[in-house]
Protein 1
Amino acid sequence: MCATCGCDDHHHHASTETITLEERVLAKNDLLADLIRGRLAERGIHAVNLMSSPGSGKTTLLERTIRDLAGARPVAVVEGDQETPLDADRIRRTGCTVVQVNTGAGCHLDAAMMSGALDELNPAPGSLLFVENVGNLICPALFDLGEGGKVVIISVTEGTDKPLKYPYMFAAADLVLVNKIDLLPYVDFDLDACRRHVAAVNPGAPVLPLSATRGDNVSSWYEWLS
Amino acid sequence: MCATCGCDDHHHHASTETITLEERVLAKNDLLADLIRGRLAERGIHAVNLMSSPGSGKTTLLERTIRDLAGARPVAVVEGDQETPLDADRIRRTGCTVVQVNTGAGCHLDAAMMSGALDELNPAPGSLLFVENVGNLICPALFDLGEGGKVVIISVTEGTDKPLKYPYMFAAADLVLVNKIDLLPYVDFDLDACRRHVAAVNPGAPVLPLSATRGDNVSSWYEWLS
């Protein structure tokens, strides 16, 4: 892993010291993530880590999901962004409990941030807990947050080839959502080819197309969640 | 800066050892970038570093730009992606010289990769050299490649708030392109608000709306390049 980016690619870094330090950072993260996983299990909380490029519709999907699932079970949200409380403000307007984590120049949430957010959020036993990660199709894939499932979102405006070009993220996914299918008539996106590309890097991962703004096929997403 | 992500945010990392190592990595990158800048200047090569989220249209813009500028001056391209030669293949079909750099799990190009790519590419004196960075609105902002200008692309499908939520990237930009304006009728995007958000984090940066697929306003982009 690279000292500055979290990559596993050593061809441009010769230093053993660097590699050892980075292994320590990830090992420490994994240890803390396991503690979080135990803490969540004890309280019957199911945590879902949402990851995607910036602007693929994570917050819009959460707004609709929270409204549609209202009353079914308690929902809480951890919002990750480099700066601004904008997404937490949007989620709060749905009536949901939310904590914003700003990472500054950072490119992902890590287990320490997740632990701090949980202390502040204190979700009710039996909650569904969504974590909206920082918009980034690369770095968040490496950091276990103690979640029960990783969901990767791609929107049809981003192009069919993304699973092949960013395979680490798609390989980490328990579910791939293809969002903004309401825009399919206006963009060059091949859903069948996208499914094949996801299968090439992650054969077991289900792929669900939907539209968070218009509501197409969100029932399949709710089924997966339950 | 964080050992695993390149962030400047230390609230979750106490180790002085970590910070020192990361400072060394960036300092080494900057030194090499200055050498590259000198090498390019000697040969009259102007290098432009294109950065954006995945799927904002960098490759499509390059395909059109190379075709439209054919004959004006020699053009060469360095393509960055985690995996696959897909983008280099697209660029090669325009008749342009191109080198693909695959970063593996890495999240950005660095000066060492740029230096290696230049050795292989050997652009003609007087060339216009495009670098298409890895699709990532965060990490590439930190790494100087010895380029003459940084261009950040956002597409209208990504949402108006991106400059505020990813301020480090927009603060680094010499030019902001707002791409996919052909999709404006179908999405909720406020161009004036986006301009204000860019100005809030980078008061001097020009903002050019365009459509790489349809060709709207690409002449302004060519003017900026010349």
Protein 2
Amino acid sequence: MDKRLFDEMIATRRHLHTMPEEGWTEFETTYFIVKRLREIGYETVLAGKDIIDPASVRGRSEELVNAAVERALGNGVPAEFIEACGRYTGAAAILKTGRPGPVTALRFDIDCVCVQETDDPEHAPNKLGFRSGRKGLMHACGHDGHTSVGLAVARDLFEHRDALCGTIKLIFQPAEEGVRGAVAIVGSGILDDVDIILGSHVGGKCKLGHVGLVHGGVLASTKLDIYFEGVPSHAGNAPEKGKSALMAACATAMMMAGIPRHGEGASRVAVGKLIAGEGRNVVPAHAYIQTEVRGETAAVNDFMVKNVEQIVAGNALAYGVQSRIVVAGEATTIIECPEILDIVREIARDVPGVEAIDELSTPAGSEDFTMMLKRVVEHGGRGGMFRWGCNHHGHHKRDFELQDTESMPVGFEVFSRFVRRVNRCEG
Amino acid sequence: MDKRLFDEMIATRRHLHTMPEEGWTEFETTYFIVKRLREIGYETVLAGKDIIDPASVRGRSEELVNAAVERALGNGVPAEFIEACGRYTGAAAILKTGRPGPVTALRFDIDCVCVQETDDPEHAPNKLGFRSGRKGLMHACGHDGHTSVGLAVARDLFEHRDALCGTIKLIFQPAEEGVRGAVAIVGSGILDDVDIILGSHVGGKCKLGHVGLVHGGVLASTKLDIYFEGVPSHAGNAPEKGKSALMAACATAMMMAGIPRHGEGASRVAVGKLIAGEGRNVVPAHAYIQTEVRGETAAVNDFMVKNVEQIVAGNALAYGVQSRIVVAGEATTIIECPEILDIVREIARDVPGVEAIDELSTPAGSEDFTMMLKRVVEHGGRGGMFRWGCNHHGHHKRDFELQDTESMPVGFEVFSRFVRRVNRCEG
Amino acid sequence: MDKRLFDEMIATRRHLHTMPEEGWTEFETTYFIVKRLREIGYETVLAGKDIIDPASVRGRSEELVNAAVERALGNGVPAEFIEACGRYTGAAAILKTGRPGPVTALRFDIDCVCVQETDDPEHAPNKLGFRSGRKGLMHACGHDGHTSVGLAVARDLFEHRDALCGTIKLIFQPAEEGVRGAVAIVGSGILDDVDIILGSHVGGKCKLGHVGLVHGGVLASTKLDIYFEGVPSHAGNAPEKGKSALMAACATAMMMAGIPRHGEGASRVAVGKLIAGEGRNVVPAHAYIQTEVRGETAAVNDFMVKNVEQIVAGNALAYGVQSRIVVAGEATTIIECPEILDIVREIARDVPGVEAIDELSTPAGSEDFTMMLKRVVEHGGRGGMFRWGCNHHGHHKRDFELQDTESMPVGFEVFSRFVRRVNRCEG
Amino acid sequence: MDKRLFDEMIATRRHLHTMPEEGWTEFETTYFIVKRLREIGYETVLAGKDIIDPASVRGRSEELVNAAVERALGNGVPAEFIEACGRYTGAAAILKTGRPGPVTALRFDIDCVCVQETDDPEHAPNKLGFRSGRKGLMHACGHDGHTSVGLAVARDLFEHRDALCGTIKLIFQPAEEGVRGAVAIVGSGILDDVDIILGSHVGGKCKLGHVGLVHGGVLASTKLDIYFEGVPSHAGNAPEKGKSALMAACATAMMMAGIPRHGEGASRVAVGKLIAGEGRNVVPAHAYIQTEVRGETAAVNDFMVKNVEQIVAGNALAYGVQSRIVVAGEATTIIECPEILDIVREIARDVPGVEAIDELSTPAGSEDFTMMLKRVVEHGGRGGMFRWGCNHHGHHKRDFELQDTESMPVGFEVFSRFVRRVNRCEG
């Protein structure tokens, strides 16, 4: 790729690495993206509530958002910008060529994870001086790279817009971690006219020099927060007057673990956290469970969710307490569109530095891009997802590293060449 | 007491001891009672459905009834009698003096327990040749004595009817074991005009030579049968298609044990039996729990019942199965009417052979006479319960024995003198 | 195949169909097999304890065995025969050619299932007059066909013994249902010198005209009977003195359902039956759980078994009760020996009536032939399993049918030709 | 009482009210007490480790202690004092008269509770300017009054020491809340030569103008902290590698609720808090339960504790996790010594302002003075406990108030006159 673009892309990534923001708090990142897109020349730049359906927002903490707004304001993000975003994050640029052609969307995710970056002096961000400036937050999943690739693709396509037809939508999604943000973007309607969508993720099982085509192996998953509210009472004097939210939660945890296996595919259920009770001698009035289920197919995942719902309702009834379930994240399985993967395969073979193509279908976590892909396919479109390799030590690890100069150009090239191919101006 | 009456009473008791019948199957016993009452001269003799409200019948097994009907027919009970009884058991005689006075009811219970009588040659029924002729059935709680005392009282009162005023109702109750029969008698309405009711039980903590006045200590109790019906499926191939009644039952058992203690009195919960499942490799479609709860007060017992109901409904919901609860027995606490106990105390002091009066209030099981007493008190009447002593080895034991010649006259005297006192013809 | 052999094979199958015997009670069947093998001319015929290691017997009910012995004696099986068998079932014939060559074993299983045969007049055994003569028992899994094919193969090989080298062991295994019998045969040592072993099963997913080669899909499984023994007490008077076996069993059931999923393959756990308690008002002293676990790999199955063991021990400790686990059946996964399957494939192609070869690897229940195969492979041998097709309505169904005249010759031919190939006398 | 003593007592109480310290952190209070005792003239003044057995300390948080030490140092408590106390709190003064006579101990407890004092301007401490100066901490159980009464008694007895015989031990106990401190004082041996011990508590059901004699009604109780440590793993990728501390805790909570009722007295079990897990998608490695049990008798309480221990051990085994139980508090029932209560009754009748004597025996929480009393009685001594009334709005409430000028003199007089009576110098 062009050296000017390359230099900017790497510098952008390293800058973003210093200022990680977790899901739904990416105000500085969003502002950075919006400024860059406008500087490139995009006329239609959307941010926050323009591309976010509040009713579909998952796993957003008002408390964290408030703190992040304070920080962003302190770091120079204009109050009017945040206001205009409706206190939501994420951005999109739309390039209308004016020529008939497909509507193509690209997805880039922008949030970080809650990990403390290593102090190891050999770790590239330490060595080269761009380590995270925020305690307990780190781009340890490579989304700084995703965002930077997206901005480089944005500039590249804009500069070559005369060779393109149709419409290109560049979507910078918030809150991919915990699979929380994609549904809100789907809910905004921005994908409803999209013909082709392409998403990606760096790394995973895909090593440096490889491009991976995602045929399957993405587990459907639903993240759930469960709340029970009981009635407190003095456990010594009047135990019969209490309704224990703690007991309802414990029974729920035991029953959730016991949801039957499914004959049509692997399932998972994780009761990750349980917090209940106010004091040693008080019948507990509050309990909270943080959980997630997964399924090899959407049907298996739905089976798990439905069982959790029944169990929660049943225990609320059995223990005489109130219950509430909040969906904190959602992802489905990948829908395979072979014609799109065929295009990516062809393109990838020609990208400099690509030595092998991996056909990926073994289970590898969950990804909420699947929700976007599903919407596009439901409306008659097609899409796909690829990986571009890097030799990391493990995602979400304190020493995760991108090898940016080697890995990011591959991501850039696949995205850029894909759009130039499917939106090529035939004239 | 009169020697003629005494001899008949003892002979009756020993005869009944040879032919024990468990709750709701007392066809031969009922027929025996009815014949005797008619022979004495009672004009109004009621049996079976005349004093039994079918809707209030608890814990009656159609299967056991069918077998008992066969046996009774074989032993000479006329088919028309059983038909007239509507296949229900129990009897009553009503003595109307024609003179104004109170309506007084006496309760005598007639069923046996499922215990195999001992082979010990020293055991009185073995020694004297009146052991139970029925395998696994025995009058090991003394109801043969109760019935015989009742019949002796019936003859005594009838013979002295000219000295009585008001009305006397002699009630021979079926199915006291498991506290199943009293509610059906209450439901028939026969107690609705009763002013005074007196019940009794031999033994318990009351030793030979003592009469006990029951001030309290009778636990309220509800016996419940719980049924779950699930959906079977092949547990290996399609576990997700099954709905396990077994799991719902197990969760129910665990939650029932965990019903909170009550600050206002002792409670009990017993999960006595659980039977679930059809085969090793089939998701269980059926489960059955046999349980009972108790409470030091009716309110505590109600709290327990309500919790069981909620738990069963909650687990049905949680596991997606059907549930059903059947009340198999009911008793409440004793309502204390001091004026009645005062009368019994006075009378008892004068009864030959009575050396001491016990004032009883420590917990001593459940008794469904409490349901009759409750109804009488609700309608403005009063009542009470007493014990007449005997030195047994423990109720429901294989070697339980009444010491009939010594203990039964005391029971007879208290009942007889009580009626002669409260229904004395003032003229 | 030879018409004489064919006629005998079909007649044998139909005769066996009339006299089904469940696992470990196959005394009449064993006697029938032994008589036939001797009549054919085999000198070494083993039965019962000669091929059964008592310590490895799984899931054998002394009570059922006693009843079966009575029946067998009544049906003419000599008492000395049963005595000589040590009251165990199963048989084997050994053909020693006297010429150097491999030791080859064939497995035929002989037990029936507990299913009541349909009354449908169109059902072949009804139509042709060979329906099961035993209520609640039926050859609804085709083992009557297996046994008959085995006896036909026995005659065929014996008649052609001059063309064979090495040793042939024909093993008639009891108690395959519930995967109970194979381990006992393994334990006897009869397989320890075997170089090649071949087993089969009719039907499954294999349709008439097909032969299936079993590459995988057989789940490892362990059947477990769990017993808890507690301490009884009066649940109303002294609940603290009891130790509830019922509660320990219920907690065990709930925890077993909650054994974690395994990341390396499918698992199953079925709590099929739970029977606990003696009476409504007695703290339950006895509880019994009938269960099974399965795993896509032996390691996954072992993980499940180990968890069950821990859960049972833990609940015994928590509830202060005694526990006991009895292994009631065992099977492992298939070990694939491609060279053996290659031979079967080649042979099968030439068998008259075979239109297609199925390569089977999708999950299809458990089979304890796997335990025999495992032992042979552990000792350096090889082996395999095939299916011969039939168009049944489902195994263990009341109308299961073999279509014997069409399906059985295929089974016969594959076995017979296999031995003639691997034990061909080269001279 | 003497006006000088009265003024000092009230001023002391109001000063202590401004500086509440919770259990095991009472460094400033202890220093205050020690200084006062020395100023009065006591030669033997013990503090911290001199009267505390570290091995018997219950429910002490090193973290809270560290923070309290910092605060105390900041507020002028000398570092050497804290060091000399071994970082433990509590104090005692010993008055040896040199004349033969009984060893008499008085108990005064000094810690506060974690309650935020009300802002109501009518609340006496607000109105009169002595409200708690510490957020979330308040003397809302009256121990400021206990301590001040103790110091007034100390001065009074010292000033009248010539009229006394024997030895008097004035014990200022830390950490009574949560029944944590008494066992450590018992462990120090300071009570081993005590002949007579007297303790007290203000308020409860005892109204202003009443003195209450505690005959019974104090429940034995054990406070337990339960810890489970499991093995974390990725709940999606390798659930089988994790050992869930959360599940062990949930099963423990359910089983604890289900500990059988006790036939010989009321019991309680409260699972007040449960905190488990690290993240949504990680098998939880840590779990914590805060619980307490109670019993109407020490035997019933022991039954509960033993069951909890078995349940915890059983679930650790079942789930393959480590467990640890820490006793966080202990109290037993009151041992009644009628001769001591008789003395208090006699004295109290003569105390100005006392209008009635309450004979208390209904259940009223737990109190660790019972552990001291038990030790004294075990060594052949006797003792008792009384209440002096006040009209509060409820202990541990934000507006609890002592009505110090009216209620405290009663407490003072009973203690002072009691010692002057039992340790009267007969000469």
